[in-house]
């Protein structure tokens, strides 16, 4: 084992974790925007989102442990979990630490989804978007691979795909809300208003859609009129 073994592991696991985090969010957007329809889809494909999230956590853990074990660029535990404590590129490392804590919120609330209010869980799940942004910034500013053309190309491609799918989701959500508001039924009035006199049968005919002309009562039959 070479002296830089853990440094290589840290670099490889960090890149894999970043790609998996992006793919987790992309897969979730493909399902929510219905680019990939859920109807008729095998169950294991619908569970892909959760599996990608679990793999992201695993490789992120490997990234942190290998940085701690590495003797080439050693990181203490405080430097791995507290922003701006690292002597090595503190700003760049802080982006990764922020992404770690936000990802911990997303993953832990996903496990507790059934015991949480749906609205609260949804709001916390939106934290996935800043996680992706922080991971991209961390990849572009930290580590010896930040200037690698292949890594830059992969990061740029994932960011473009995420941006396009996010815009598509926002547009479809707005169209759905607009369609629902225009198709909302108008509540019918129930009974006469408080304080108003009861409507006669002839007035009710007008209210149910009769023409705006005056409805005339039929003339009384003189033979049946009570005098």
Structural write-up:
- By secondary structure, the chain is mostly helical.
- It has one domain (5-176).
- The chain has 9 helices and no strands.
- Helix 1 runs antiparallel to helix 3 (48-69), helix 5 runs antiparallel to helix 7 and helix 7 (128-141) runs antiparallel to helix 8 (149-182).
- The longest helix has 34 residues, at 149-182.
- It is elongated.
- The chain starts with a helix and ends in a 20-residue tail after the last helix.
- The relative contact order is 0.10.
Write a concise keyword list for the protein shown above:
single chain; disordered C terminus
Order of helices and strands: HHHHHHHHH
Computed structural class: mainly alpha
The tally of structural domains comes to 1
Annotation field: number of helices: 9
Outline, from the CA principal axes? elongated
Number of strand elements:
0
What is the CA–CA distance across the termini? 121 Å
**Mean pLDDT rating:** 80
Give the helix proportion (percent range).
55-70%
Largest sheet: none
Low-confidence stretches: 194-215, 220-227
Spatial extent as radius of gyration: 32 Å
What fraction strand? under 5%
């Amino acid at each position: 084992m070479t002296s830089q073994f853990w440094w290589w592991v840290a670099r490889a696991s960090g890149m894999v974790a970043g790609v998996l985090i992006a793919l987790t969010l992309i897969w979730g957007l493909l399902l929510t925007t219905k680019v990939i329809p859920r109807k008729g889809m095998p169950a294991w494909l619908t569970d892909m989102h959760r599996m990608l999230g679990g793999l992201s956590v695993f490789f992120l853990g490997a990234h942190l442990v290998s940085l701690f074990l590495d003797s080439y660029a050693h990181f203490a535990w405080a430097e791995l979990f507290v922003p701006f404590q690292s002597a090595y590129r503190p700003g760049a490392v802080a982006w990764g630490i922020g992404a770690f804590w936000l990802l911990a919120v997303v993953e832990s609330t996903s496990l507790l989804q059934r015991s949480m209010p749906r609205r609260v869980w949804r709001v916390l799940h939106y934290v996935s978007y800043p996680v992706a942004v922080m991971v991209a910034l961390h990849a572009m500013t930290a580590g010896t691979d930040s200037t690698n053309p292949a890594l830059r190309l992969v990061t740029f491609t994932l960011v473009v795909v995420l941006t396009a799918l996010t815009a598509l989701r926002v547009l479809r959500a707005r169209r759905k809300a607009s369609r629902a508001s225009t198709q909302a039924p108008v509540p019918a009035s129930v009974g006469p208003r408080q304080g108003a006199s009861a409507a006669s049968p002839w007035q009710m005919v007008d209210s149910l859609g009769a023409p705006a002309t005056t409805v005339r009562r039929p003339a009384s039959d003189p033979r049946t009129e009570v005098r």
